[in-house]
Structures are given as C-alpha cells and as structure tokens.
Design brief:
about 475 residues; alpha/beta; Rossmann fold; 10-stranded mixed beta sheet; two-stranded antiparallel sheet; 14 helices
Length: about 475
C-alpha cells in the first residue's frame, strides 16, 4: 500500500511539473509575440525603502523624488530619438503629453494649503499605476473647506512602469505613514484628520486605520473616504508571480509584464508588470486577515466611520468584496456604503449581461444592516430620473431622493476609474472645461473604425472615465466636514 502511494505521488508530481513547464512555455511564446520592451520598461529608479521612509520627513521624500525625475529625464527622455513617430509618448519631450511641459506636473507629490488657519487635514492616496492627479479635485475641495491636503506620490508611481517591478506593498504603507505625519504636523492638534483612498489607495487607507488602532504612535484618522477601494482582487493575482518566472532569463524579460502598451497617458501607466499584480494581492490579503482578526477581538469597534463610493460594475476590483469583506464586518459606527447602479434606461440594456443588470439586487444583505446604504439608480421606473435610495443603519425603511443629475444617454455604467473625475476634468472628462490642457482629452474621444487597427483595445478608449454624479458625491464628502 505504501509503495502504491509513493508511485501515485511521484506520478502526480511529474504531471504537475510537466503542466507547469507547458504553461511557462506557452507564456514565453505569447510574450515573445508582443512588442519589445522600451526604456521605460527597463530603467528602474531608486525609491526610498520602507525603513528609509519611516526615518525621513516630507522634505526628504521630495528631495529623493526630485532626484528620480531628474534621472528619468537623463536615462529615458534624453535617450529617445526626437524623430520617433510616436507623437503621444509621455517620455518624449516633443510630445503634447509630456508632463514636463504642463503648468503643474501632477505625477509629483503636492500639498495644498488653505487660506487662514487650517481646520483639519486630509491625506489622499492614489491607485495602482496611477498618480496624485487622480485625487486633485478632492484635494482642491478640501482646501476650499479649510483643510490641509497632502497628496503623496506612492513609491513606484508617476515615473516609469518599470518602477513597479522593484517596490513592495510595505513601501506604500510606509509612504502612507509619512504623508499622515506631514498632514498632522501642518494642522493644529485636535483638528480632524481624514484619509481619502482611491482603488489601491483605499486598501492602504483601511490598513493604516487598522494599524492605528494597535499602534498609539500612529495618528488615528477621524474618518475614511474610500473610492472604488481595492478590498479584494481576483484570486488569480495570487499566482501572478508564476507568470513572470521565465523573466529570470534575460532573453525572456517580457514575461515579467502582464501588458506592454504605449505610454500615451501623462498621469497613468498603461503597461503593467507581474509584480504589481502580486503586490496588490499581498496587500489585500494582509488587509483581509487583519479585518477578520480585529473583528474577532472587537478591536474593530474602535474604527472611525467609513464612507465608500463604489460602482456595481467594476472590472478592476471586486465589488462583492467591498460588501462582504469590509462592510459586513464593520460595527455600527456611522459608516455608509454608496453604490452606483448601471444605467437601466440605456438603449443597450437588452445587450447587457443579466448578472450586470441585476447586480445591485444581490450585493447587499437584507436590512436591517449595521451600516447605512445608498443606491444611485433609475431602476424602479427605468426612467431618465436618477434617485438616491437611502436606507439608514438599523432600519428597514428606504427613502428616495431625486438627484437632479442623470446618466448621459449613451453611458451604460460607471467604471472603476470614473468615480473621482467630474465630467469637466481636462484629461478624463466627457465635457472638459480646458480641452487639451494635458495634450489629449480621453473622455471626449469617440473612436470608430475597424478592429486590429489601434495598438490598444477599444475597451481602453471607450471605458467610462468620468462621473456624472461627481457634484453629488462631493456634497456627500463635504457633509462629513461639518
């Protein structure tokens, strides 16, 4: 019997090894068919490590940031042939999307100070592959309300995609702690401290708040504002590192990337390395473990209120994870979850997947719930009138309030990336107030043509990139400041 077991184990191991070899071989074949790596895929800047971030201050971080940008110009931009036909290349100085030409390079960390004595502070944390640009509208709104707004460029971002091949999620957490230290230093003692986190920044905000419950030296936030938070990602991200194994051989360096695309966006990477996917999974895994542990120990009872904005249609993060992996664990502490339904009145509704059309109906547990919920929808009458259906915590009664804002008739849903941008945003807005301010206005593009002509998929260009309900969303955030 023991001999048979050994034989079976050997055969199973042999089959598993052969399957891995075949999969890695297929991975190599597929990546070798893709585009070549460019300078921004191979040059890796030197960011401050976790330990150095915990020992430095804001001035030290900005000094190293300035050094990185200077080295990037020397090692990437200055080495490009200016006659290259790639007009939309964020690293080419002659390009209209070259950030160095803009009045403000929003790839860099920034602080917005209010007029007069600050009445509070806010830390803004952007998403993965993103930059501080994504939360600039919120930063300005907080500034107008008397808050110091500290928006940090998280390590590995705002420079070259290759930077994400060398950073760990712990570096992002250390940068978060640094930003909070600076925010707390610039606002008077006893004033409120909020943290706004978008996507991956939402996971960092939550993780910091949990850490602050256990570590007295960390300044505790008074409220969290989460936008499309990365509470859970695809389980396949756990094994993303395997896809990059062939890259240990220089000839197969392209396998270290899940996507290699032209870099035409001045404030966001298009290319995506394997390691970044792995780090996002490690961060959300650590967050989930801590949430469940703190709930079991009742430490979660001390968590400040959390206000979250999330689209039911999100191809980047898991919307169910926001409900089950976060909100269903929260205490009755004044938290609220705002969900944006799909546009039920759009003419494309017969072409929608049933799971998408009815997503809002199955996400939430039945009331009463320990947290308040608001669903922005036009579902009941499938009209063009959007309403906010609100259910208070502990109640089974729902009230409906017309918003006076509507979905554009050709928009069937929001998206993961749309929520933090108004329709007037210069880069992503559908009706930009300053078209071309950053060389291109993605939100107003309406590409049409044949397949396989563009270097990027039509999904990339047609993805909804701004939020028609942004003014109402901003009002909800401002209500937390009163």
């Amino acid at each position: 019997m023991l001999q048979r077991t050994r034989i079976w184990l050997k055969r199973t191991l042999f089959v598993a090894i052969m399957a891995l070899v075949v999969l890695l071989g297929l991975r190599v074949v597929l990546t070798e068919r893709g585009p070549d790596l460019a300078l921004w895929h191979t040059w890796v800047p030197e960011e401050l490590s976790e330990s150095k971030l915990d020992r430095t201050d804001w001035a030290g971080y900005l000094q190293n940031e300035q050094k990185i940008f200077a080295e990037m110009k020397l090692n990437v931009s200055d080495k490009l042939q200016q006659s290259d036909p790639e007009t939309y290349n964020r690293y080419a100085e002659h390009s209209p999307v070259y950030p160095g030409h803009f009045a403000t390079d929003w790839n860099r960390s920034y602080i917005m100070m209010p007029q007069g004595k600050p009445r509070g502070a806010v830390v803004l944390l952007h998403g993965l592959t993103d930059s501080p640009y994504s939360l600039r509208h919120f930063a300005e709104d907080y500034r107008q309300h008397g808050y110091v707004a500290v928006a940090i460029r998280l390590p590995g971002h705002g420079t070259v995609p290759a930077a994400l091949t060398s950073v760990e999620w712990e570096d992002w957490m250390a940068a978060t702690r640094l930003a909070v230290r600076e925010a707390r230093k610039r606002a008077p003692d006893g004033t409120p401290l909020q943290i706004v986190g978008f996507s991956n920044g939402g996971a960092l905000a939550m993780k910091y708040a949990l850490d602050a419950l256990q570590e007295p030296t960390l300044a505790a936030p008074s409220r969290l504002i989460l936008i499309s938070p990365m509470i859970g990602v695809s389980s396949y991200a756990r094994y993303a590192g395997l896809a990059g194994l062939p890259s240990v051989f220089p000839a197969f360096a392209r396998s270290a990337w899940l996507s290699i695309l032209p870099e035409f966006n001045p404030f966001k990477y298009n290319s995506f390395p394997v390691k970044a996917a792995r780090q996002s999974w490690l961060l959300t895994s650590a967050l989930q473990t801590q949430l469940h542990r703190d709930r079991a120990s009742h430490l979660l009872d001390k968590l400040p209120p959390v206000l979250t904005f999330q689209s039911v249609a999100d191809a980047t993060v898991s919307t169910p994870a926001v409900v089950r992996g976060l909100y269903n664990l929260l205490p009755d502490n004044g938290s609220e979850l705002v969900l944006f339904d799909i546009n039920q009145s759009v003419q494309l509704s017969p072409l929608m997947r049933s799971s998408a059309r009815h997503a809002a109906e199955h996400l939430l547990p039945p009331p009463p719930r320990r947290y308040a919920t608001t669903l922005v929808t036009n579902a009941p009458a499938k009209s063009n009138i959007e309403v906010a259906n609100s259910t208070p915590a502990g109640s089974t009664e729902t009230s409906s309030t017309p918003l006076g804002l509507n979905y554009p008739p050709d928009v069937y849903s929001l998206s993961h990336v749309a929520l933090p941008f108004p329709l007037t945003d210069s880069l992503y807005g559908r009706t930009p107030t300053q078209p071309g301010e950053f060389g291109v206005s993605f939100g107003s593009l309406t590409p049409r043509g044949e397949r396989a002509v563009l270097m990027v998929t039509l999904d990339t260009l047609m993805r909804q990139s701004s939020n028609p309900f942004f003014p109402w969303m901003l009002e909800r955030v401002n209500a937390t400041l009163k």
